[in-house]
Amino acid sequence: MPEPTWAAKWPELLEGPLPRHLAVIMDGNGRWAKARGRSRLKGHREGAESVRVLARTCHELGLQAVTLYAFSTENWGRPKTEVSGLMELLKRFLKSELEEFLEKGIRLTTIGQTDRLPKGVRGSLENFIEKTAEGKSLTCNLALSYGSRDEITGAARSLVRKCSAGKLKPEEIDEDLFGSHLQTADLPEVDLMIRTSGEVRLSNFMLWQLAYAELIFTPTLFPDFREVVLISCLTEYQQRNRRFGLVPGGAETKT
Ligand code: FPP
Question: What pTM does this model have?
């Protein structure tokens, strides 16, 4: 097999497989700003720059999908000025990135209750999603107004509706069918989840999808999460031994 185009830049990554789908909890923008005596919004602006680098690098490495936790259902409870600043930042991001996404064949998708977003943001998102829908390289999936329990509850509700309407029998519900009712249905399995800023929790993020994922918690604050840190997380991922609950050597191994 020919070497991938990125091989000369990151030869260390030739040692093992890359994740098909990377999920990131982008945390620490506020702390990054506070440490510099800057506003929280400045931290988010630098975070948006990290998002750009992340999407570009995932595309360069040929990953299939990257999901970014950009705004949780809980984040609506932040001060009004911060919420509107984040929405404005998202709008600006969508405006500045469209050309590059189209050129690289990156498709944008979202998960979460996007109907709760302000009208202007929804319009920009819908336009971006429609224009990039045919993108065949990376899928960049933004979790916006997202909560995993809410997503799981929605899937359960939709299955119950189908059962009540006689379109489905309860005994036909298995893990695959349940998964196909989640908002991530058309994305590959999440192989790796990275959370920045040193916090070690999942904060209602992709609870179903992370069942077998490798988890990396890096102390790096998200505005500093650029290429070098991402590559070192991917190297760490490659060194992990993924056994999916089995033992080395398989079922015939002597115990
Ligand atoms: C967490 O940091 C970050 C967020 C709640 C928002 C994430 C947003 C961005 C990275 C920028 C915009 C995104 C896009 C897609 C353009 P925090 O504020 O909780 O940090 P703290 O815990 O240090 O206070």
Answer: 0.95
The DSSP-derived string for 74-104 is GGGGS-HHHHHHHHHHHHHHHHHHHHHHHHH
From the CA of 86, give the closest atom in ligand 1.
12
> Ligand 1 mean position to 135 CA, how many Å?
26
Pairing relationship of beta strands 107-111 and 139-146 according to DSSP bridges = parallel
- H-assigned helices in the chain: 29-35, 40-61, 80-104, 119-132, 148-164, 175-179, 227-239
> Does the annotation mark 141 as catalytic?
no
With cut-offs at 50, 70 and 90, classify the pLDDT of residue 96: very high
pLDDT value for 255: 66
In the set 27, 29, 141, 191, the catalytic residue is 27
Report CA 197 to chain centroid distance, whole Å: 16
75 counts as catalytic: yes
Q: Which two tokens stand for residue 108?
A: 């944008």
